[in-house]
Amino acid sequence: MIPEYKKEQLILKANNVSLRYGDKQVLRDVNFEIHNIVRPNMQQGQVVSLIGRSGVGKTQLFKILAGLIQPTTGAVTIDEDQHIVKPGEIGIIPQNYILFNHRTIYQNLKIGLDFSGRKVTEKEEEQLINEYAAKFDLTEHLKKYPVQLSGGQRQRVSIIQQVLTGNKFILLDEPFSGLDVLMIDKVIDLLLEVSCLNEMNTLIIVSHDIENALAISDTAFIIANQPGKEGATMTETIDLITLGFAWNKEIRQNSQFQDLVAKIKYKI
Amino acid sequence: MIKTIKKSIEPLHVLSTRTIYTLVAAQAIIALLAWQMSGGGLIPTPLKVLDSTIAILSTANFYDNFFSSISLSIKGMGISLVIAIAVSYLSLVPVFNPIAKFIIKCRYLTLTGLIFLFTLLTENGGQLKISLLIFGIVPFFVTSLMSIIDSINVQEYELCKTLRMNNWQTLWEVVIVGRLDQVIEVMRQNFAISWMMITMVEGLSMSEGGLGTMLIKSNKYIDLGTVFAILVIIFITGIFFDFILGQLRFWLFPYTKLQIRK
């Protein structure tokens, strides 16, 4: 049974995005839209996946979406007024969870808050950081330096740092890469928790891990090369809500879901 | 015991601190014994060098020379560091980048050919020495600092952008504050160059004394015992400063200690 939901306003749009480096066409006419999904009596954001094989140009698309590089043609627009994305409007969690190594975890989180534009006192900042640290199992690590943390812990710090900036959009580059099965489940729980912090929170996962990316998403976009055409493009949009696969923690046990994963493997 | 010996010849094996100290002590003893047994002619033996060192240390004149060299070296290092840091950080501002690149290339300029020019440009021996020292050190300092800046992961800059920092805030966070520990490391590595150059520049103006002056005078009279003793003192002082700067880095930036392979 499909849960009750509504797709409301457009919050992000990639409009004919192409990227060319010299003679090499990396991305070609990438088009997709993300809408605010509203579920009655629930606070839940959106989780979207951009799935493609390694080397297809996902990282370049990741940077374009974050406003870090400009596409050769086309544009990425965000929010209700659909303005062109600027750096700082979309948070990023790179694959290797970059943090400031010279700052403690507390200071790394504080820096997110300091540049959020929110007017909060030192005490309120401390309270907010402590709240998030407690929520995401980081309280005992606040005085440590990033180098003392495991990959999973660094990932959590990176995500919270971006959440504290007040960014509603968070881009994650290969969040399941190099993690064991148990850790992947934990990351999925964490991401779902982050997406539920605010109705407008939108997580965009860029990944080649089809199964896990689909398991967490409400919408997935397949990015692939097409025969005879240079540059990767969006080849398919999968609405996991209408398929009945979204918002179900146990979906990976579902045989129809596994069939979908198998089909996509051949398509990318 | 055999296990430890095996480990000590195995690549990438990390030994305990105690084993490392034992290894260093054993190798030093072997080297000194070899030196003692092979010496005796023109080259003074370790015992003779030790006698000369004790003799030098008991003269009041030595301490004046020693502190003259130390103060010249620290002064030279301090000024060079300020100039090098300014040049390196400014290299990120496009208009200043060519200046930084030119200074790096100045490593290939020999000081010997410029002594006359510096003599004309400076007012006294003290100024001449400090100017030559700075001219000699700054290109190496800038090279090391620029190499640190060049090796910064581009993702750090991107993170700053997504955290809404402007370019000046990014420069402050990533390059200046974020790499301050490495500035101390550069200072430690380049102190050796400054310390090595000190004897050379002191030879150019001997009126203020210094270890370099002592060395030149002893060489002139082929007093090799004293020459070796001064070299030992220069060597030990260098190692001492190396240690102090290393510890200073760990003390000021505790996270650097966590990154060492154990």
SSE layout:
The complex is a heterodimer of chains A (268) and B (262).
Chain A: E1 6-21, E2 24-38, E3 46-51, H1 58-65, E4 73-78, E5 83-84, E6 90-93, H2 105-114, H3 122-135, H4 151-164, E7 169-173, H5 181-195, E8 202-207, H6 210-216, E9 219-225, E10 232-239, H7 255-267
Parallel strand pairs in A: 3-8, 3-9, 6-7, 7-8
Antiparallel strand pairs in A: 1-2, 1-4, 4-5, 9-10
Helix pairs in contact in A: 2-4, 4-5
Chain B: H1 2-8, H2 17-38, H3 46-57, H4 60-90, H5 97-105, H6 115-121, H7 125-150, H8 154-162, H9 167-177, H10 180-202, H11 211-220, H12 224-252, H13 255-258
Key features of this structure:
heterodimer, A: 268 residues, alpha/beta, six-stranded mixed sheet, four-stranded antiparallel sheet, 10 strands, globular, B: 262 residues, mainly alpha, 2 domains
How many discrete structural domains of chain A? 2
Structural class of chain B: mainly alpha
| Total domains of chain B | 2
Residue stretches of chain B low in confidence (pLDDT < 50, at least 5 long) are none
State the helix count of chain B.
13
Rg on CA atoms of chain B, Å: 22 Å
Major sheet: arrangement of strands of chain A = 6-7-8-3-9-10
Number of helices of chain A: 7
Instruction: Write out the CATH superfamily name of the largest domain in chain B.
Output: MetI-like
Structural class of chain A: alpha/beta
Content of β-strand of chain A: 25-35%
Biggest β-sheet strands, sense, barrel of chain B:
none
Note the quaternary state here: heterodimer
Biggest interface: chains and residue counts? A-B, 28 and 21 residues
Architecture overview:
The complex is a heterodimer of chains A (268) and B (262). In chain A, helix 4 runs parallel beside helix 5. The longest helix of chain A has 15 residues. In chain A, 30% of the residues lie in helices and 28% in strands. Chain A has 2 domains: 184 residues, Rossmann fold (3-Layer(aba) Sandwich), CATH 3.40.50.300; 72 residues, no CATH class. The model of chain A has no long low-confidence stretch (mean pLDDT 91). Chain A is of the alpha/beta class and 268 residues long. In chain A, a hairpin with a 4-residue loop joins strand 4 and strand 5. Chain A is built from 7 helices and 10 strands. A 6-stranded mixed beta sheet of chain A has the order 6-7-8-3-9-10, with helices on both faces. In chain A, strands 2-1-4-5 form a 4-stranded antiparallel beta sheet, with helices on one face. The two termini of chain A are 29 Å apart. By secondary structure, chain B is mainly alpha-helical. Chain B folds into 2 domains: 38 residues, no CATH class; 206 residues, Orthogonal Bundle (MetI-like fold), CATH 1.10.3720. Chain B is built from 13 helices and no strands. Chain B is flat and about 70 Å long. The two termini of chain B are 21 Å apart. The interface between A and B is medium-sized, with 28 and 21 residues.
